Amino acid sequence: MKNKNKLKIAVLLGGTSAEREVSIASGLQIAEALQNKGYDVIPIDTAGGLKKIDVSKGFDVGLIPPESKSLSKLDDRYLSVKLNSGELQDVDVVFIGLHGGHGEDGTIQALLNLGGVSFTGSDVLASAAAMDKAFSKMIFKSQGIPTPEWIAFQRDALKNVKETVKRIETEIGIPAVIKPNAQGSTVGLSIVKSKNRIEEALRTAFEYDNKVLVETYIYGRELTVAVVGNYDLPVIEIVPEGGLYDYKCKYTSGKSKYFCPADIPKRVAEKCIFYGRQAFEILGCRDYGRVDFRLDNDNSLYCLEVNTLPGMTPTSLVPKAMKAIGYDFDDLIDIIVKMALERKNE
Ligand SMILES: Nc1ncnc2c1ncn2[C@@H]1O[C@H](COP(=O)(O)OP(=O)(O)O)[C@@H](O)[C@H]1O
Ligand SMILES: [Mg+2]
After folding, report:
1. How many angstroms separate the CA atoms of 253 and 234, rounded?
2. Atom of ligand 1 nearest to the CA of 215
3. Does 164 lie in the same domain as 97?
4. 24 falls within a domain
């Protein structure tokens, strides 16, 4: 039964992507924040059904993502069944707490549009564009946003793998970064430092995607720009233990150091924020997101990607940036819901 005095928010979490565990952590903490702000909340695992809000035990995101085999057994038709049966009709807004896969690539957004339900964050086209790294890089390049040089390969590149390796050696060079085109959380990504490791890295990346991106490795530092509405947010520097900001460093506390604001020259910070917002806007993103950069030793910036559904636990990067300007996690979640509600009432 709907409580007449309260707005009802469904939080989508879990799902079937490699970032399932991260999304459960984000989603349940989003749900708790919404409850704290007085909303009526129903958390829904799109691959499992209703969830209880229980954040007391904390969240152990594993050191590695769940295996593809176990993920492929999950069924994420639950949400479409709920929408078809009209059970979500009295929901005022759906908060998408998913990461990766159908939650981030526009599919769930399209389903919600068809079901006539309002939701937080970017719409179909921007989600799909941002999730496709090769596609967004073409747009960045065309708009003058610097991004590492790259080649995108389809699966048939493995047929004549010798030729593919040669092309990478001559056009990209070593070290190279080899990553699935539409994954997140550094899953399936390798930094290749010797020629004889290229093939193995390609095969690893193709385990996760039919399209693989090979990029010039950018030596230097790791920066990220949070975008939330029109708030002025500081650039964050991430210093991962061991150099690569991988799955373990992203989700195990103490494995990365964060500097917010980043200790970089003012001019570089302003440029980073400018490119971050430009990347977000040209892809057509809305409400909130995060744009990842590398900063090389000459202070040149390179945009890696736009995340339309960035991590949303209280220690994640977008919440960190908002905290730096005085908004706590509950406030941030409320701000995002209000953006979706405003759009609904337009
Ligand atoms: N071209 C690159 N040069 C240097 N480091 C990179 C490069 N591409 C990716 N990385 C490293 O890998 C991490 C993940 O890459 P990214 O493109 O942001 O994909 P995702 O976060 O979606 O897995 C980055 O945060 C960075 O640490
Ligand atoms: Mg990233």
Report:
1. 22
2. 1
3. no
4. yes
pTM, two decimal places: 0.94
Nearest-atom index, ligand 1, CA of 183: 22
Residue indicated by tokens 């809000």 = 53
292 is catalytic: yes
Of 193, 218, 304, 306, the one to substitute when testing ligand 1's pocket (max ligand atoms within 8 A of C-beta) is 304
Q: Are residues 85 and 178 in the same domain?
A: no
Q: Which of 78, 130, 67 is nearest to 99 (CA)?
A: 130
- Of 216, 235, 268, the residue at which a domain comes to its end is 216
221-247 b/e (C-beta count within 10 Å ≥ 16 → b) = bbbbbbbbeeeebbbbbbebeeeebbb
Closest ligand (CA of 238): 1
The tens-digit pLDDT sequence of the chain (346 residues) is 556 679 999 999 999 888 898 899 899 999 999 999 999 999 999 987 666 666 555 556 677 777 777 777 777 777 777 777 777 889 999 999 999 999 999 999 999 999 899 999 999 999 999 999 999 999 999 999 999 999 999 999 999 999 999 999 999 999 999 999 998 888 899 999 999 999 999 999 999 999 999 999 999 999 999 999 999 999 999 999 988 888 888 888 888 999 999 999 999 999 999 999 999 999 999 999 999 999 999 999 999 999 999 999 888 999 999 999 999 999 999 999 999 999 988 8
